[in-house]
Amino acid sequence: MKISFVIPCYRSAGSIESVVSEIQATMTDADYEHEIVLVNDSSPDDTMDVLRRIASRTDEVSVVGLARNFGQHAALMAGFHVVSGDVIICLDDDGQTPPRESLKLLGKLDEGYDVVYGSYGEKKHSAFRNLGSALNERMARLLLDKPKGLYLSSYFAARRYVIDELKKYRTPYPYVIGLVLRTTNSIANVQVEHRARAEGVSGYRLHKLLSLWLNGFTAFSVKPLRVSSLTGVAVAALGLLFGVYTVIRRILDANIPLGWSSLMVAVLVIGGMILAALGMIGEYIGRVYISINQSPQFVVRERIDARHSDGDL
User: Which stretches of the chain are assigned E, i.e. beta strand?
Assistant: First the structure.
């Protein structure tokens, strides 16, 4: 069995060499044939130079350099088009997801599961990242029908047929979690260690996290549109009830002044809901338009092949 590792790289010049070294040591000790696919997501530092240097020293490493920053999930998809292994393991470039823990993922996969996600007993992320992960977890359960109790992370192992199915998705808005959930329900967790960040800061800022969440629930679910519709019906019903209440009060007490404030509140609430619903519809239409225009999921500027690579990029 051949194991393929896919690692999206962004601002990881100082950490990626130790990650690759730990993968190689772990796989050699376990006697697994393996390859490592490093995808540079147009990192602004000298990450690409470091990846070239790593690839020049070993035949087990392939490098894919993207032409611009497409995001972590697009970088993963680019790596999936290069891998040749029977099992694909995805992990981070900062060393917080220890490569040696991949043996736990493989052990759980041997129990018959299609995909195994690493879960963390104690996460070493910042409070902001932990909040983002919690919101992402909630979103996946409500909008993507994620099974309750299943923890989804960036550290996971999947069988080749799952990855081959994910590769069929060609639109410019990939969301790997959503693709996995719609491909198979044979998914499990195994607890792994989560290290503290050795250097640098997370590449996920607020705008990137918001973009990721928006991508997740608009690319794989129409539930936000249904929520908008139901909210509109609810607001309309409340408006009708408030109108009936106002008429009854006016009949019972003719001296009650007309409610300018309540009228403005009703107008603002209803107007806000209409604008929100229109914005949500516009988001879906905009993504359809961009997809029809065949905007690329990723663009490869440079590729350095490992000796045994047989990918399809």
Answer: 2-9, 33-40, 61-66, 87-90, 115-120, 156-159, 187-192, 300-304
Q: What are the residues whose beta carbons fall under 8 Å from the beta carbon of 122, sequence distance 6 or more? A: 194
For residues 5 and 25, the answer to whether their CB atoms sit within 8 Å is: no
Tell me how far apart the alpha carbons of residues 21 and 119 are, in angstroms, rounded to a whole number. Answer: 23
- Strands 156-159, 115-120: pairing kind: antiparallel
Instruction: Look up residue 129 and give its DSSP letter.
Output: H
Mean pLDDT of all residues belonging to the chain: 83
3-class DSSP string for 230-246: HHHHHHHHHHHHHHHHH
Beta-ladder partners of 191: 119
Measure the CA–CA gap between 39 and 299, rounded to whole angstroms.
Answer: 11
Report whether 41 contacts 71 (CB < 8 A).
yes
Query: Is 78 within 8 Å of 95 (Cβ atoms)?
Result: no
Burial class (CB in 10 A: 0-12, 13-18, 19+), 227: middle
Distance between CA atoms of 134 and 184, rounded to whole angstroms?
23
Which parts of the chain register pLDDT below 70?
122-136, 143, 197-223, 225-226, 250, 253-262, 264-265, 268, 306-313
Token code pair at residue 289: 């338009």
pLDDT given for residue 136 in this prediction: 67
